[in-house]
């Protein structure tokens, strides 16, 4: 009987230690961005205005802008490589209209799998460029505080401001907002969608299609003769976005965004605004919201299982086994 008591006590101590080690040493290391992410979310929205490159090239002033075009955006995020707490992540988006693809983007990030912030490139993938802050999502255990996010168009950081916590789509979410611009677009990938300069004659022909107020159109017409030919152009970007985030898992439950890109005449030290060349509003589809809710609930279950249920069972079971073993040994010693 004494051997039984000793064995129970030993098992209890081992289980107690295992529970404590799992909860405080092992589990924190497991709570990071998964290494098998391959996820597609769909957005829907309206392309209020978009410069029509084909019409511009053809000198078709009447059709220089696409307007009020319904669009969908498919965004796929995929982990390509991991090294401990570091991950290489590919983020691609394709915007489609009823007539076909409108715009495609590709970004490759190296991130800290815990903080979700960009880190120096640890791979040989040359597509990774220097960035700062959050680039592809929020961390597990998202706090009610401001974060720093990366603005790809301007290649600068912006504040992602915590606003409030509320129930959304049946889940308690932290709501963040970000607003920026207009700031100069410096991304080569985005600038490739717009002409760097236009001949004076082309601009003169396009003025009626720009939708400028009469006074602004007159001022532009007066300015053109004094400008170089072709006229150098610059572009700016402004946006406002809202994020609904599950704080336990960092999963983005819902999202909406309004973007505006505008063209200016580039005089070096001075930029003269001309017109908006791209205006886009979009949000997550209902189906993608439900997918996000399901992903968050699955992740919450895993976190509870690994972080609470199993460690707690080991700790409580260990304590009980140790107590029972101690009692058995005392009774044996007393007999």
Oligomer: single chain
Rg (C-alpha, Å): 28 Å
Order of helices and strands: HEHEEEEEEHEHHEEEH
- The share of residues in extended strands comes to 35-45%
Average pLDDT reading: 86
Number of domains: 2
Number of strands: 11
Distance between the termini: 11 Å
Structural class: alpha+beta
Helical content band: 25-40%
Number of helices: 6
Largest sheet: 11 strands, antiparallel
How would the global form be characterised?
A: elongated
Unreliable stretches: none
Compact description:
The chain is of the alpha+beta class. The chain has helices spanning about 1-30, 55-60, 190, 200-205, 215-225, 285-335; strands at about 40-50, 65-85, 85-95, 100-110, 145-150, 155-170, 170-185, 195-200, 230-245, 250-265, 270-285. Strand 6 (about 155-170) and strand 7 form a beta hairpin.
Top keywords for this entry?
335 residues; alpha+beta; 2 domains; eleven-stranded antiparallel sheet; 6 helices; elongated
């Amino acid at each position: 009987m004494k051997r039984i008591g000793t064995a129970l006590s030993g098992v209890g101590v081992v289980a107690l230690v295992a529970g404590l080690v799992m909860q405080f040493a092992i589990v924190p290391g497991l709570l990071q961005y998964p290494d098998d992410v391959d996820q597609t979310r769909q957005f829907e929205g309206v392309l209020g205005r978009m410069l029509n490159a084909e019409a511009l090239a053809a000198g078709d002033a009447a059709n220089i802008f696409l307007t009020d075009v319904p669009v969908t955006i498919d965004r796929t995020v995929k982990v390509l490589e991991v090294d401990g707490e570091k991950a290489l992540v590919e983020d691609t988006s394709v915007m489609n209209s009823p007539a076909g693809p409108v715009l495609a983007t590709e970004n490759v990030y190296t991130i800290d799998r815990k903080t979700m912030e960009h880190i120096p490139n640890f791979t040989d993938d040359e597509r990774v460029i220097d960035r700062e802050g959050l680039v592809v999502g929020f961390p597990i255990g998202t706090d009610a505080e401001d974060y720093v996010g990366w603005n790809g168009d301007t290649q600068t950081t912006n504040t992602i401001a915590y606003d409030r916590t509320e129930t959304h789509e049946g889940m308690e979410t932290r709501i963040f907002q970000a607003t920026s611009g207009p700031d100069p677009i410096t991304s080569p990938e985005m600038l490739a969608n717009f002409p760097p300069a236009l001949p004076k004659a082309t601009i003169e022909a396009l003025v009626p299609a720009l939708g400028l107020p009469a006074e602004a159109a007159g001022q532009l017409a007066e300015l053109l003769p004094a400008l170089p030919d072709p006229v150098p152009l610059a572009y700016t970007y402004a946006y406002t976005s809202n994020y609904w985030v599950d704080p336990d898992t960092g999963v983005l439950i819902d999202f909406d965004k309004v973007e505006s890109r505008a063209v200016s005449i580039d005089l070096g030290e001075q930029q003269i605004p001309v017109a908006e060349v791209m205006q886009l509003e979009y949000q997550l589809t209902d189906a993608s919201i439900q997918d996000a809710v399901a992903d968050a609930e699955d992740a919450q279950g895993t976190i509870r299982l690994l972080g609470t249920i199993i460690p707690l069972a080991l700790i409580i079971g260990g304590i009980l086994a140790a107590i029972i073993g101690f009692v058995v040994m005392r009774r044996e010693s007393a007999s």
